[in-house]
Design a protein that fits this description.
single chain, alpha+beta, 5-stranded mixed beta sheet, 3-stranded antiparallel beta sheet, 6 helices, 10 strands, 32% helix
Length: 264
């Protein structure tokens, strides 16, 4: 009778150990389901969709813009070109060009005060080119926003402020610059902070859905901030004591159950 009882107790302990192991495995599998990007994308075939959410970057107050002018009479054109004056205050990443004032205007030689805010680089180039025909022979104008920058913070490999050499930067490109998300990051809990018309807006971003590519926020604006929320596992990976405590508690629980079985 006693042998049967002992055997039953041993079987119960084995069952508890197996249950503990299975729970741990299922827990890790459940966590993995949140890791892949764009989970609703059909990867079994080639698919395509029209790009309808891209909008050109417009010049805003406090932006720095470079203006380059070429002409048949280049000596005269050089009067309008301003790429040598320091417009920014960052000694590590100096910004050169014209600073757009709070009214959205810049002051140019001969042309005087010019309203530039709300215009794309291409639109302003065409406007200045037309205006300069009164002073230059066949002028060609190139305008570029030179202070385009975004910040990426949170659970990424390299949180930092990143500058872009073009007017086009996407959320996925910004995260790539930051070295991608860490494995502990919440891919469905990212926040884009953007200043729009004098208001700070907080926008939820979900990397687990391909709908991101059609989002009106997929293409970033200058001074955008991306914050990647760390998951609960982040604490366990950086806090050894917390992780070990969890394992010890689990082990002690099994020991306590075993002792209880053998003493009853």
């Amino acid at each position: 009778m006693e042998t049967k009882t002992s055997t039953k107790k041993l079987q119960t302990i084995k069952s508890l150990v197996i249950l503990f192991a299975v729970t741990a495995i299922l827990s890790s599998c459940g966590s993995y389901k949140k890791v892949p990007y764009f989970q609703d994308l059909d990867r079994s075939q080639v698919t395509s969709e029209a790009i309808t959410n891209m909008s050109s970057l417009t010049i805003q107050p406090e932006d720095q813009i470079s203006i380059s002018v070429t002409s048949l009479n280049q000596d005269a054109a050089n009067v309008f070109t301003n790429n040598g004056n320091l417009a920014g205050t960052d000694s590590q990443n100096p910004v050169y060009g014209y600073t757009v004032d709070s009214k959205g205007e810049v002051t140019l030689p001969l042309l005087g005060v010019v309203k530039v805010s709300g215009k794309t680089s291409e639109e302003l180039s065409k406007q200045l080119q037309q205006q300069l025909t009164s002073f230059l022979s066949k002028p060609n104008v190139s305008v570029k926003i030179v202070n385009f920058k975004v910040a990426v913070l949170g659970d990424v490999a390299r949180p930092n402020i990143y500058r872009s050499s073009t007017d086009r930067l996407t959320i996925t490109e910004a995260l790539s610059l930051a070295g991608d998300l860490n494995i502990t990051a919440k891919r469905d809990d990212i926040t884009l902070v953007r200043e729009i018309d004098g208001k700070r807006t907080y926008i939820p971003i979900d990397l687990t859905s391909k709908n991101l590519f059609q989002s009106p926020y997929f293409y970033m604006k200058s001074n955008d901030l991306l914050f990647v929320q760390p998951g609960k596992l982040k604490l366990a990976t950086v806090d050894t004591g917390y992780r070990n405590a969890s394992l010890i508690i689990s082990a002690l629980t099994l020991v306590a159950i075993a002792i209880s079985l053998f003493t009853n």
